[in-house]
């Protein structure tokens, strides 16, 4: 195993650790401090970030793994989280490859789109996959999307720094032109 | 080498009549799409998660415990900081003594309130036949579609799936996914929650089903029952989870449909699960019956 491969695996481990921290922050820290507004779904923002930045083939399986980790924090069925994240992933890939955008502002727009598609997909998939479907709860869903939208701007810089800190190989503007599915790391 | 060459042969374009496609890409796409479909079929609601879940659950509960402790520290520090800001505007010497005394008094009042609260919890635990395990709430919902909380007690503390979770004021939910050191509690407002209930006033039975974050629905109550807004709903005790007669909620709205034999009753839970911090898990209910107690409490409050 060479140095590059080690760095790559360490990066994956680091992002998994960050994912756990994000989920813990949402479930155990934020509700005890701020009770007025819901916590931003940092885990979803992370998934959107890696969908945009990382190679698609590896990313989708990594997102499945993160979805599996998510079930430890809450009673979300695995089928629901995998189905909805697959739809979010696919829709973001389509948009990313159609719009040649870079920068934090574009990331904010994509997070808004990703959060919206997650909420809409979750509602409709719940009707199909679950025995007791979820309610519309429009106000909570819109508020959640808005909170994600507000908090994703500073998170872009944090995640960007974390992405390049250990293993910097892809630029997401260039990767949007890269249609190869295989892993690019050597 | 031969195997590699064999596999590589699939990466090249394969001619199939008039269609050219990359088999490797198709296989990968099929695998990506198949995993969610497989997860739908293999999912089973078991009382305890599979063995391969344990390390992930342990990591999750460790993170939740860490953040819970951190949030408690932040809240304490914030309240002290706000007190200090108020102190700065007054006379230094006398106000310093005065504020020091006020701070002590504030801490004393806080401790007294905390003591009173804990005494109430302890009295409740002592004066009941139920065997109770106290627990703290360390985590809340991750998505708005599920109403669950996480408590810091698990299988190693004697918890089992299906045990009732309640506070001094009323029922909260029941344990549904315990792990070794923590457990998920399904609140009565969760859409998958179904609890046997009865209307305290006339003993009419029904089922409480969760609806939204703040409301439940009481189903299968006959059209002819004499009930009104504000009536207390208590546990029926038939599901063998909750003790009989424990407060569940209060009727908020009654819908009388002409084409239905039962009423559609909206119930507001007596316990706001979003604010609860300490709960009790009922290890054994000891055939406790709160029905007469809740009636006498109502009569006492009416006489006053």
Secondary structure layout:
The complex is a heterodimer of chains A (186) and B (304).
Chain A: H1 3-33, H2 42-53, H3 56-70, H4 78-98, H5 104-129, H6 138-166, H7 172-175
Helix pairs in contact in A: 2-3, 2-4, 2-5, 2-6, 3-4, 4-5, 5-6
Chain B: H1 2-11, E1 14-16, E2 19-21, H2 23-42, H3 54-88, H4 92-126, E3 131-139, E4 148-151, E5 164-166, E6 171-178, E7 183-187, E8 194-199, E9 205-210, E10 216-222, E11 232-235, E12 247-255, E13 262-269, E14 278-284, H5 291-303
Antiparallel strand pairs in B: 1-2, 3-4, 3-14, 4-7, 5-6, 5-14, 6-7, 8-9, 8-11, 9-10, 10-13, 11-12, 12-13
Question: Can you walk through the features of this model?
Answer:
- The complex is a heterodimer of chains A (186) and B (304).
- Helices cover 74% and strands 0% of the residues of chain A.
- Chain A has helices at residues 3-33, 42-53, 56-70, 78-98, 104-129, 138-166, 172-175.
- The longest helix of chain A has 31 residues, at 3-33.
- Chain A is globular, with a radius of gyration of 16 Å.
- Chain B has three domains: 2-42; 54-127; 131-286, Thrombin, subunit H.
- Helices cover 37% and strands 27% of the residues of chain B.
- Chain B contains five helices and 14 strands.
- Chain B starts with a helix and ends with a helix.
- Chains A and B meet through helix 1, helix 3, helix 4, helix 5 and helix 6 of A and helix 2 and helix 3 of B.
């Amino acid at each position: 195993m060479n140095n590059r491969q080690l760095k790559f695996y360490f990066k994956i481990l680091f992002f998994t650790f960050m994912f756990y921290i994000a989920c813990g922050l949402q479930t155990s820290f934020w509700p005890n401090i701020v009770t007025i507004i819901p916590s931003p779904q940092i885990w979803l923002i992370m998934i959107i970030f890696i969908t945009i930045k990382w190679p698609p083939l590896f990313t989708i399986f990594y997102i499945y793994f993160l979805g599996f980790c998510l079930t430890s924090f809450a009673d979300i069925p695995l089928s629901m989280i995998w189905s909805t994240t697959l739809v979010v992933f696919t829709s973001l890939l389509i948009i990313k490859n159609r719009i040649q955008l870079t920068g934090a502002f574009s990331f904010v727009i994509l997070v808004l789109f990703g959060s919206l598609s997650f909420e809409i997909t979750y509602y409709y998939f719940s009707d199909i996959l679950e025995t007791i479907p979820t309610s519309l709860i429009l106000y909570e869903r819109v508020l959640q999307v808005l909170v994600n939208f507000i908090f994703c701007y500073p998170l872009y810089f944090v995640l960007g720094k974390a992405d390049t800190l250990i293993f910097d190989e892809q630029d997401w503007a260039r990767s949007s032109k890269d249609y190869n599915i295989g892993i690019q790391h050597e | 080498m031969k195997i590699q060459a064999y596999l590589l042969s699939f990466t090249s374009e394969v001619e199939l009549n008039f269609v050219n496609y990359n088999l490797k890409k198709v296989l990968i796409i099929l695998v990506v799409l198949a995993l969610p479909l497989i997860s739908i079929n293999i999912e089973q609601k078991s009382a305890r998660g599979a063995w391969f879940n344990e390390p992930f659950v342990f990591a999750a509960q460790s993170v939740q415990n860490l953040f819970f402790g951190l949030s408690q520290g932040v809240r304490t520090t914030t309240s002290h900081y706000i007190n200090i800001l108020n102190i700065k505007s007054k006379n230094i010497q006398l106000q310093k003594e005065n504020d020091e005394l006020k701070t002590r008094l504030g801490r004393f009042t806080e401790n007294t309130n905390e003591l009173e609260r804990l005494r109430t919890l302890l009295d409740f635990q002592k004066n009941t036949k139920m065997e109770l395990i106290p627990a703290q709430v360390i985590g809340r919902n991750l998505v708005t579609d599920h109403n669950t909380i996480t408590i810091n007690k698990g299988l190693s503390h004697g918890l089992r799936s299906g045990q009732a979770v309640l506070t001094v004021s009323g029922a909260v939910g029941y344990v549904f996914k315990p792990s070794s050191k923590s457990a998920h509690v399904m609140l009565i407002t969760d859409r998958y929650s179904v609890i046997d209930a009865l209307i305290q006033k006339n003993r009419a039975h029904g089922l409480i089903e969760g609806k939204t974050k703040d409301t439940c629905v009481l189903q299968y109550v006959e059209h002819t029952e004499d009930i009104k807004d504000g009536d207390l709903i208590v546990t029926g005790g038939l599901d063998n989870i909750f003790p009989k007669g424990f407060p569940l909620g209060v009727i908020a709205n009654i819908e009388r449909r002409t084409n239905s034999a039962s009423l559609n009753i909206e119930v507001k839970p007596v316990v706001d699960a979003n604010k609860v911090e300490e709960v009790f898990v009922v290890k054994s209910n000891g055939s406790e019956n709160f029905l007469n107690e809740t009636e006498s409490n109502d009569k006492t409050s009416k006489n006053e």
